[in-house]
Amino acid sequence: MAVPIDNYLRNQFMPHMWCPGCGHGIVLGAVLRAIGRLDLPKDEVCIVSGIGCASRAPGYLDFNTVHTTHGRALAFATGIKLARPDLHVIVLTGDGDASAIGGNHLIHAARRNMGVTTVMFNNSIYGMTNGQYSPMTPKGRYASTAPYGNVERNFDMCGLVKAAGGNYVARATTAHARQLSNYVEHAIQTPGFAFVEAVTQCPTYFGRRNKMGTPVDMIEWFRKNSVNAAAAAKLDPEELDGKIVIGEFYRGDAPEYTRVYEDVIKRAKEAAAR
Ligand code: SF4
Description:
Layout: H1 24-38, E1 45-49, E2 64-67, H2 73-83, E3 88-94, H3 95-101, H4 103-112, E4 116-122, H5 157-164, E5 168-173, H6 177-189, E6 194-199, H7 203-209, H8 215-224, E7 226-228, H9 229-232, H10 237-240, E8 244-251, H11 257-273
Parallel strand pairs: 1-2, 1-3, 3-4, 4-6, 5-6, 7-8
Antiparallel strand pairs: 5-8
Helix pairs in contact: 1-6, 3-4, 4-5
Bound molecules: iron/sulfur cluster.
């Protein structure tokens, strides 16, 4: 039977700081349920985050936890995994943290195929700093720094991670919590770099500025505007405009970095012994 998620919370730090209706609790619940189904011992899990609303999550979690600096969660996670390859290292990061200041760390963690699971909470905005647009804000949407509508195209982070060399890539939304949790479970089980994009609602800044209604309306909008990967493959780019494509996009079997690095350590020891 799955472990109840309360078992993984530092209840002494409640209430949490997230706004009422924020989707981050749904994403975090999906992550904790995946860990519970896998029955991972707490001491064998290390959760790492950067800066932002999503990155506050580790403070509430009863594992080894590291709350680091903006955009650098994957740099810290890389060091942790190299020092302790036996740990399940899980990065919880926001869209600004992962795709802007931390973008380069993400690309290289994927290129190295570092054995880290990354869950990117994509609320399409910088929530913690009052709603500036991020690289994940869709074109035409409003933000405090895009009062006439964002003119930039948003990143396809799943496409980026796949192209960079990660072994697992998937996306779901808070309207698909069970699916999201299953993807996180598969990501944790994947040797090598695994990336799950969790599309989540920020009713306070993104939803209000874009007139998306209540948090429930936003989840309903995700549900109505999501297309699974198999159906999306049959649609034209125009038909997919504004849609969220969900599903498991890639599973690879490239060797995980710390396993490869073990050979380097072995060769170095042999050379030193000669
Ligand atoms: Fe959630 Fe947005 Fe509030 Fe941050 S600002 S806690 S993302 S609703």
